[in-house]
Write a structure and sequence with these properties.
alpha+beta, globular, single chain
């Protein structure tokens, strides 16, 4: 695997940031059972999830990590491993996921979807009164 490979905690295969999620459980005992996985492999019992394609932006990465500070976590090792695995993607000077976010923002589109291509969410609704 390459230096910048993410590995799914469930199937142990390489996963691209655009196809991955960080999922975990939040309950009365705090946060636990953090998993980095393909979207399709994410454990079904998780209550929270964040798309990795969004977490690799510097501001989103920092927000995600600082949100975890001070919250009870009986086994912090999986979270530590996920943060260390994501860090190289955030710190890369040529971060393709961040470039997707910037490109999408400039076109008002969904990150990872080329301008003019159909989004996974379907066609965007036009605002009422637009073009009048």
């Amino acid at each position: 695997m390459s230096e910048y490979a993410l590995v799914c905690d469930v199937c142990a295969k390489a996963v691209e940031p655009r196809d991955a999620v960080v999922a975990w459980v939040v309950d009365g005992g705090g946060e636990h059972d953090f998993t980095l996985a393909h979207v399709a492999c994410a454990p079904p019992g998780t209550t929270e999830r964040r798309e990795v394609r969004l977490l690799v932006g510097p501001n989103a990465f920092l927000a995600f990590t600082t949100e975890r500070f001070g919250r009870p976590n009986r086994d912090p090792e999986p979270l530590r491993a996920i943060i260390w695995a994501l860090a190289p993607f955030v710190m890369r000077h040529d971060n393709p996921a961040e470039m997707d976010l910037l490109r999408a923002a400039s076109f008002g589109a969904e990150p990872g979807v080329k301008p003019g291509a159909a989004s996974a969410a379907g066609p965007q609704k036009k605002e009422e009164g637009a073009g009048k």
